[in-house]
Amino acid sequence: MTASRQQKLADLFTSATVIPVLTIERLEDAVPLARALVAGGVRVLEVTLRTPVAIEAAKAMIAEVPDAIVGIGTILNADDLARAKALGAKFGISPGGTPELLKAAAAGDLPFAPGIATASELMQALAHGLDIVKFFPAEQSGGIKALRALAGPFPNIRVCPTGGVGEANAASWLAEPNVLAVGGSWLCPPADIRSGNWAGISAMCARAMKLLKPA
Predict the structure, then answer these.
(1) In whole numbers, what is the pLDDT of the chain averaged over residues?
(2) Is residue 215 part of a domain?
(3) Signal sequence: where (predicted)?
């Protein structure tokens, strides 16, 4: 993976501050949800491949919400990575990294952040030129203390912590020098999506951006 591609991913994450992790159950929710997030100042979105409608939901967001920067999450293998690229995703994120997936990501041109939780997993990512990673599950893997420990032998890593990150602790994570952005689902609670509370989601996003985004 080229340095310019890595820089593109770094710029995306830095501009995002918070990347909502979206699990979309109903296709009809995709476009209004994306519009609500963008209206609240949250433009970089991760659509996870956890539901049968995920791919179509991402396609709809890309087609109908041009201000949204849509990436694909829960990429588990090379086929998922290829699907993300084909549908026009701007980046990919995985919860972990198999040798096959890391090799495909390094050979391709889609900005990609593999998931890591240990030094060994991080070393595998770095061996493939992937120095921007998703620390997952962040809180359950030791939290900020664990991230600081990893940064000792690997001072140049850049990280997006996800898993247990929410409104109460996002600022603490973002204060870490190697954290580019945080990922989480708290900006779009499932109950609000089910009820179509788009105004509430926009308001929550606007509040988070005001509190968390650097001046």
Answers:
(1) 97
(2) no
(3) none
